[in-house]
Design brief:
The protein is an alpha+beta fold. The chain has a five-stranded antiparallel β-sheet. It has a two-stranded antiparallel ribbon with strand order 5-6. It has four helices and seven strands, in the order αααββββαβββ.
Length: about 150
């Protein structure tokens, strides 16, 4: 049984692989979601015949995982993000909510929770009267986890 110590060591190494801190954090997710949302908002507004720039929106995301007793890190389908931005005119913030599924590689899928006229409907009516896919209904993105 000369291989027993080697097998035991291999089992311990395998069991502890990936036990370090996750590269998926609230700050990294916030930094990834806000510009993706802003760019898709610009596209949506363009489809509706309006001109907006992503820089003028000053979009910010506030993401959290699972609730107050759950650390805001790691992969999972229990992330929520609230995106806040400003439109031209009065400095009144607007918000949109998303449920996120974040994978271990840093890629995520965001599913809009409202408001309905912004991200709660799969299809929208474009400025030319055509029915088109709403770019803010669901979207995907990735971020660096290292």
């Amino acid at each position: 049984m000369r291989w027993a110590p080697t097998a035991a060591l291999a089992a311990v190494l395998l069991a502890t692989t990936g036990c370090g801190s996750s590269g998926i954090t609230r700050d990294r997710l916030n930094t990834a979601v806000a510009p993706t949302f802003a760019n898709l908002y610009v596209l949506q507004q363009s489809l509706r015949g309006r001109t907006v720039t992503s820089a003028s929106m000053r979009a910010k995301a506030a993401c959290a995982k699972g609730g107050p007793s759950t650390p805001d890190q790691g992969a999972g389908n229990d992330w929520t993000c609230t995106v806040t931005w400003f439109n031209a005119g009065p400095a009144i913030p607007e918000t949109a909510s998303y449920q996120l599924h974040v994978q271990t590689n840093g890629c995520y899928s965001a599913d809009g929770d409202g408001p309905a006229d912004l991200n709660g409907q799969q299809m929208i009516v474009a400025a030319d009267g055509a029915t088109v896919t709403n770019p803010l209904w669901e979207f995907d993105g990735c971020f660096d986890t290292t």
